[in-house]
Structure formats: structure tokens, C-alpha cells
Amino acid sequence: MSISNYPSSPTQQLSVWYAKAVIPVSDKTATKYQRCYRMLQTRTALALGVEPADVTPTQILNDLDTDPTLAIGTKCVYRSAIVWALNQPDYDFHDQDRSEGLEAVRDFNPRLSRSKDKIADVISRRSRESARFIPEADLKPILDGLLSANRSKQDWAAKTTTWLIAGLATGARPGEWENAYWQDRERGILRLPNAKLKKQPPIAWAHIPQRLLTRAEADLAAMAEADPGSVTAVLKAAECDMTLVARNFAFFDEAEARTDPANEIAFESLRRLRAWELHNAGLAWRDIAVHPRRIGAVDGHLHNVQAYLAGGSDQTFKRLYDGCRKALTTACELMFEDGRLYSLYDTRSTAAANIKATFDPEVAAMLMGHYMKRRRSLKHYAGPEHAFRRGGRFAPRAADTQKQSEQVEQGTEQASGPVAPSDGLSMPTPR
């Protein structure tokens, strides 16, 4: 199959698109993965009594596999950091070490390894407890603690109060508020960015909707038509990219690039990559209908965020988050003598409990911004038994908008679409 066989209109150049599309993670995540991999190198080197530069990826994976003090989720993130490192051309791995590392990382399943999740009473590392939530009985004391706080120039306590109520009303991740906005203020429709979308398709993405594959083929044809001179080079790069992750490392001859059977593999890689981009474009934002009695709190929080960010270059969203986080911690320390502490992220898990008490798992996953709309997506949030007494009445609902309808349609396609071959390795973003 040739990507020049499909009629199309001029669009962006194929080579320009491919250069951006193959970047596996954002710059921020890449920095985290780099730091993480260096830490793993040092950790394994200390255990083996060698220099960090002499540690191979396979040795790191063996160390992770046998360490019972790490949680499964932590091992999943570490595995992704190793996958990222193995795919960096500027990391000076010997060919054999890279090949063995790729083989080992494919075989390494954190959920089957020794972990603290499966071993009772093991001495574990400090990590955030899963499914934390704010009990209804504790909400009023927290708000009272914020109300009694000393006034500051930025009035962090007041900002934190509106953030808490808005978070409980929407289930938004803290970082999603930076770009959230009213899609329709009169109808209470809030548009939130989905902060956890992956740039690369996960290995389990087998149900690729046919409409995405058809659109991807048309887009690739258009890009090839706009940049015919780069078709051979891009096909070679796509084949090499798949080879690096899932096969061997041999380049195929440039003269055979348009006719070699490997061309089909390369095209399938490009088509899958473009289909995932189209998939993400439909899930980049989600619309939720905020309960009328909570619109005021959401309005106030959006105003606080926008006003703070407009205050100067030094007033970043991270500083706003840190200021509110510290104010919440201070209020908890003031009101709870037993040391109970809550975070802004706990509002999301609490909202999930209210949502799960009202809707079925597929709708709940969509409202929470999970692109895989299934029951398992919600396991890390509090269960419906922790819902507020009247929480279901004020839980967000699916907005009656075109975007939300498209997401529901995509969720249906994921459950019943045709099976396509899976390539690559999943690279989740660290929490």
C-alpha cells in the first residue's frame, strides 16, 4: 500500500507532521523521565556495587522486578521512564544492551512482580494513599479552619475555599483549572481540558474505530501530496521507529522503500499514529454540566485563577496551587488534632464518589475525563459508599453538547470497534 494512492487536498507537510507526532511525551514529562532514569541507574549501581554508567536497562528492570517495597503504580511509571530512555537516540547504549533492554521491558509486567501491594506488613516507601477522599463530616471543619485563617495579601484561604467547592462540584484535576472556561455560562456548561491524554497509543489500543483509520489514510495522503519528496524518508523513519521498539534494528534499502513489504509495516505505523492523534483531538476537552447551585462557586474559582494569572509573570499557576495547598494544610492542622491532612486532589476523588453513586461506570469515567471509559478506570477513586448524603444531587452531569456526544460515540466505538494490530509501548505520564 502506498500513501500516495489516496486523493487529498494540500495540507501540512508529511515530514513536519511526522517530526512532531513521534515525540512520545511532552517536554515536561521527558524531563521527569530523564530524572527518573538517572535515579534508577544510581539506585541499581549502589545495589550491584558498580558505577552508574556500567548499569544496563536489563539490570534496572531486574532490580525493579524483585523489589517488594515499591507499589505497582510506581513500577509502571519507572517502566515508562526506561522505555523512554531506550528510545532516545542520544543515550549511548550498546546495541546489545538496547536490544536486550527492549526485550526485557516488554516481558516486565509490574502487576506480576513482587510489590508491596501483595505482601502484607512489608516495610514500604512513603507514597500517596490511593482513593483518598474528604468525608462529608470533615468538610465543614475544613471550611471553618479556612474562614478563621489570618488574612494575607493574596487571601489564600478564600481562594482555597472556592477551589474546594468547585473541585467537589466538577471532579476536575487541580491542573485542569488553568485552562478551564465556561463553554456556556447560562446553561452551566464547563469545558475542562483532559490533562492525562497520552501522546502515543498504548499497547492495548486494539479497537481502532474505522472512521479514524479512514480519516488517517486521507490525511496521510494529503500530507504526502504536499511533501512528495519526503515520503521515502518518512517511511524509512517509521519502519525504523517500529523496529526500535518491537522488531530488529536493520534499515531497509532506500531504493526498495516504495515497494518493499516493510513499506506496509511503515504505513501501518503512520496510520496508527495519525488515528491516535485524531482520537485525542476528540477527547482533548470534556464538557460537564455543573449543578445550578454550584455555578457560583465554579464562577468564583475561575475568576480567582484568571485574576491571579493576570497579575504578572511571577504569578504562575504553580504558585497559585502551592499557596492554596499550604492554606488547606494549615486549616487541617488547626482543626484536626489527630493529624488528618487533605489535599486539593482529594476533591476529585470525593467528586468521583458522588458521581459513581449517581451514574454507571462508563458515564462516570467520561465525566472524570478518562478516555478509556470502563469500570477499571475509576478504581483509584473513592467508592460510592463514600458519597455525600446529598452529593448525587449536586454531582456534575454530561453536557448536552456536540463535543460530549462525540465522546460518548468514541466510547461506544472503543467497546465494539474492529481489532487492529498493536504496536509500541505504553508510556503513562507520572502523577
Automatic annotation (TrEMBL):
<protein>
    <recommendedName>
        <fullName>Phage integrase family protein</fullName>
    </recommendedName>
</protein>
<dbReference type="InterPro" id="IPR011010">
    <property type="entry name" value="DNA_brk_join_enz"/>
</dbReference>
<feature type="compositionally biased region" description="Polar residues">
    <location>
        <begin position="401"/>
        <end position="415"/>
    </location>
</feature>
<feature type="region of interest" description="Disordered">
    <location>
        <begin position="382"/>
        <end position="431"/>
    </location>
</feature>
